[in-house]
Amino acid sequence: MVRLTLSSESVRNTVITNEQGQVVYKTVTPFQLGVRTTTIQKIKPNDGQYHMHDQFDVLGKIEWHTFVSSKFRFGETEVETKEFIPRRGILGRMRVFIGPDSRPYRWHLKTRVVVLSRDDASRMEVARFHRATLGIIGKKRKAMLEVSPEVAHMMDTIIMTFIYVEKLRKDKEK
């Protein structure tokens, strides 16, 4: 499994690192009244051995709306969440989408975590979010997203959709 650690459970403002501690993604959501927008950035490879400062490219943005469908933006493409990752299931606790590999996937918004599975007969789990623990019972750990190597080729899509569904799940928790 690929293990990505989050600096904060607030997925709209977090730094995501790989198992070596390198920053691979980060999210930023400036405070503002009205519509808020989360920018998801992805680390850009350094262009030489002497260029040691991390640089990021914008992977995409999520424009959060309350009364109408939120929006994903990838470059010049904008799509409403109700079309890209529509609700499904009792109480809308699942969100489904077609991955870049043309396979169907579904995020299940459970009570305390989100789980990504194939949306086919196999229902094979391919990613799971683990919340941070304080270490009162068991070992202390930061929030973590585990992703199967089988879907690592679509990590950008997993990160974008994870940010969206985990924010929805957390809102329902309140």
What does this structure look like?
A hairpin with a 6-residue loop joins strand 5 and strand 6. The protein has a 13-stranded antiparallel sheet with strand order 7-6-5-4-3-2-1-13-12-11-10-9-8. It is mainly beta. The chain contains 2 helices and 13 strands. The two termini are 30 Å apart.
- The rounded Rg comes to 16 Å
Strand arrangement across the biggest beta sheet: 7-6-5-4-3-2-1-13-12-11-10-9-8
Uncertain stretches of 5 or more adjacent residues: none
The helix-and-strand class reads mainly beta
Elements, N to C (H/E): EEEEEEEHEEEEEEH
Q: Secondary-structure blueprint of this entry?
A:
Elements: E1 2-6, E2 14-17, E3 23-28, E4 36-44, E5 55-64, E6 71-74, E7 77-80, H1 81-84, E8 87-88, E9 94-98, E10 104-109, E11 114-118, E12 125-130, E13 144-147, H2 155-173
Question: What labels describe this entry?
Answer:
174 residues; globular; 2 helices; mainly beta; single chain; 13-stranded antiparallel beta sheet
Quick description:
The chain has 174 residues and is mainly β. It has helices at 81-84, 155-173, and strands at residues 2-6, 14-17, 23-28, 36-44, 55-64, 71-74, 77-80, 87-88, 94-98, 104-109, 114-118, 125-130, 144-147.
